[in-house]
Design goal:
Layout (H helix, E strand, L loop, with lengths): L6 E5 L4 E2 L2 E2 L1 H13 L4 E4 L11 H15 L4 E5 L5 H14 L3 E5 L8 H14 L4 E5 L1 H4 L5 H7 L5 E6 L4 H11 L4 E4 L5 H6 L4 E4 L6 H12 L3 H17 L7 H9 L16 H14 L6
Parallel strand pairs: 1-4, 1-10, 4-5, 5-6, 6-7, 7-8, 8-9, 9-10
Antiparallel strand pairs: 2-3
């Protein structure tokens, strides 16, 4: 299927305190995104640290996001697991809570074949009626969703698209060639947002938009409106900020970036650690250079 998501989506951070989720801070982050024109909020993706959260915390976060957003943007819930059964159960829970769609990363650790990927996503899609986005990020999972596999996934009715973070532009183009008109491709790597959009990408699922939602939204609009000079200027301005957001493992830098903007994002949960002072200085410099108002 095509047309589920278009524009900018933000891979949302989950703000933690020592006692759990800081829902008031999360509310402020949601409103910041909506004010910036963000089209969809992706919660419990990699950036949201779901692997460190309890089932109760994940359920509460989904319900809160759905209620706070109130249909002003789509809510897409990360349900990825290396157990197909667990991913399907999570997808069903997200659908019951009012999510508009789910995002499922390729299975990790117990690495499967391409046939296993097809069976995995078919089972998740069969368990729910809302759209499913497959997430390809082999640097984290050790599994690469190949273009010919994407072509097979396009035959499944409620597979809406693929979030592509392989970092391989040739592979992205091959996937688009094989699935165009049947399956959407979304940029899952901020450094490649511009070329993926220009090649026909329907949306970006962005980390840097946690800090600069308006700019990322404007980038998508400029490409869709064929204002490529403006799109290139925006991409050039965003690139150093995006790089700073990945100077350490995501979401370590972007959490500190949100703290610098005045949000109470807290620090990541172990095994992730706070941003080093050296990288904090780099991030702060790039945020100031970009024109963000920092509290530091």
């Amino acid at each position: 299927m095509t047309g589920f998501l278009r524009g900018s989506a933000t891979a949302m951070v989950t703000p933690f305190t020592q006692n759990g989720i800081d829902f008031e801070s999360f509310r402020e982050m949601i409103e910041y995104q909506l004010a910036g024109g963000t089209d969809a909020l992706v919660i419990l993706g990699t950036t949201g640290e779901p692997a460190t959260m309890s089932e109760t915390e994940r359920s509460e976060l989904i319900r809160f996001a759905v209620e706070q957003t109130g249909k002003r943007a789509k809510i897409i819930v990360g349900v990825g697991s290396n157990s197909t059964a667990c991913a399907a159960i999570g997808a069903q829970a997200a659908e019951r809570a009012g999510a508009d769609g789910v995002l499922a990363v390729t299975p990790y650790y117990n690495k499967c074949t391409q046939a296993g990927l097809i069976a995995h996503y078919a089972a998740i899609a069969d368990a729910i009626s809302i759209p499913v986005i497959a997430y390809n990020v082999p640097s984290r999972t050790g599994v690469n969703l190949l273009p010919e596999t994407a072509e097979r996934l396009a035959d499944i009715e409620n597979i809406a698209g693929i979030k592509e973070a392989s970092g391989n532009m040739a592979q992205v183009l091959d996937t688009m060639c094989r699935t165009r008109g049947r399956l959407d491709v979304y940029s899952g790597e901020d450094a490649l947002n511009l070329p993926i959009l220009c090649a026909g990408g329907a949306a970006v699922i962005s980390v840097v938009s946690n800090l600069a939602p308006r700019a990322v939204k404007r980038l998508t609009e400029a490409v869709f409106e064929r204002r490529l000079y403006s799109a290139n200027k925006l991409a050039d301005a965003l690139l150093p900020l995006s790089a700073a957001c990945f100077c350490e493992v995501n979401p370590i830098p972007v959490k500190e970036g949100l703290n610098l903007l005045g949000f109470r994002a807290g620090i990541p949960r172990l095994p992730l650690t706070p941003l080093t002072e050296e990288h904090r200085a780099l991030l702060l410099e790039e945020m100031k250079r970009f024109g963000l108002e920092v509290n530091a």
